[in-house]
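Go through this chain for my students:
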Amino acid sequence: MEITQILLNAQSPDGSIRKVAEESLRHLQEQSMPDFLVSLSRELANDDKPQDSRKLAGLILKNSLDAKEASRKLELAQSWRSLDPMVKVHIKAALMQTLASSAVDACHTSAQVIAKVAAIELPQGEWPELVGSLLSNMGGPRADRSPSLLKQVTLETLGYVCEEVPSDVLVQDQVNSILTAVVQGMNDAEVNSEVRLAATKALNNALDFAHTNFQNVMERDYLMRMVGEATQSSDVRVRRAAFECLVSISSTYYEKLAPYMKDFLAITAKAVTHDEEEVAVQAIEFWSSICDEEIDMQEEYGEFQGDSEVENFYIIKQALPVLVPLLLETLTKQDEDENQEDEAWNLSMAGGTCLGLVARTVSDNIVPLVTPFIQENVSKSDWRCREAATYAFGSILEGPSLETLAPLVNSAFNFILNALKDENNHVKDTAAWSLGRVFEFLHGPNIETPLISQSSLPFVLSVLLESIKDAPNVAGKVCGAIYYLAQGYEEPGGNSSYLSPFIQNIVQALLTTAEREDADESRLRTSAYETLNVVIRCSSQGTIPIVIQLVPIIMQKLHQTLDMQILSVEDREKQSEQQALLCGVLQVIIQKLGSSDSTKIAILQHADQMMSLFLRVLACRSATVHEEAMLVIGSLAYATGPEFEKYMDQLIQ
């Protein structure tokens, strides 16, 4: 049977036919790898062959050259290098020939395979003619056959090659030629949007090679102008790709951005307010990327930039008057029908995330710009305004000083707390998240003036423990708020804390939450148990009896997972998840009680039963659980000391 039919059969819906074909392909590969690869390259290059067989031939070729696992990747590269030189010449010629095909899928596949070969050969000084051959497609005689498609796939190939090979592999003349071809494809004179899209993506991939070009003012100006013009393309895909390119430029060439920021601020503002969401999100990502760069510099060098290789131009600080109102506006662009559990990346989320990064970048300077927005919108009848105000509040809590935030937090805290009772799920979700941020950044033993006093704590907890009964997405974030609230009261060795009188109710609420029928949604069960772990870890000595009471309760829950009915993969995953979480809780309990001789007795009393449970969990042979089970066994061994020796025979079986 010829390879065409085998490749088609390998895609058959009939399982038996598919299995025979896969075996035949495996046999051909084992019989002679060189012949097999040559036959695949011929199949890919032959315009008379079916599209499906050509596409699969190219995919198998690509997978014979590259793999995700590093050791396998190295092995495949060595296998390619060991091929007879004439075999490689034949395959590469077929791949280059395929680029001129009229079959789009075959062209795209060939572009990817060429890049994989280039990744192996170019660093070794082989295939030196590749870049020149590709560039000839941009205007040579072969370009007359199908100029637009050939230009498109050639630019794709150049982009893939730049993505695959190290930036020091190409000489500057080659880089210059690639960039010339790329900007030619991006130019307004190019009427084919597919070519412009491929060129814009190729420039993004080639940026790491263009350091010399970015040092030259004229060349840099031209490249920046090309990207700027691409952001105004009539094709939404090109506009998005252009902003993705700007994002890459902002991180790779931050030190060169300053002269262009006035134009880029105008371009991004227009995109955020008027363009499609996928473009607007990338425009915001540009500013997030600049924040990342400036945050990194500030964290590494502080206010003293003398030792920094790159000067901090404080681009974000200069852009604040325009940037912050722009981001605040995006917060009101929520999708009412969006499932909160999905947490899809949208304009509102991108804007809020960027606002948070801006707060970390400029610190106190952001507070007076955001405070009026919060005050104006937090009580409005439109839920979008209330949610936006709450989101803005939570977003700026990391970065500014406590002194600057104090007036805002003190005035808004009760509003945010009451927002947990809002009629709208979006508002409640964001309010719970914001409270978690308040407790994470503005609550703890190091805070001189506590946000939550001993007298106000009962009310705060009553609201949280009521809201933990809400929809899974809200309840999960309430768990997060309790997590940071408990963490803020941690006092190692302390006999009591303000939280101590409420530990019993908190623990019970978290256990009940973990057992909810909808606990699989929004990672609610995981959030509940992770919060329980922190509550136990941070609890004072006075609440140890409550922790001791938990031992048989958690053991019983773990025992119940062993008797779960497993009828599907989903059932097995659910069992593994619960076992891992419960092992994690027991580990924290063992560490808490095992830290002193006076409480260790509670562990010793249950050690036999615990070890029996852990061994049964290990017998389930789940990789997900294995690590957690071994960690809790390690904690038990440490707590029981020499007593653990009696379990060793069972453990090593």
Q: What stands out?
A: Confidence is low (pLDDT under 50) at residues 141-146. Residues 277-301 form the longest helix (25 residues). Residues 127 and 352 are 48 Å apart (CA to CA). The radius of gyration is 31 Å.
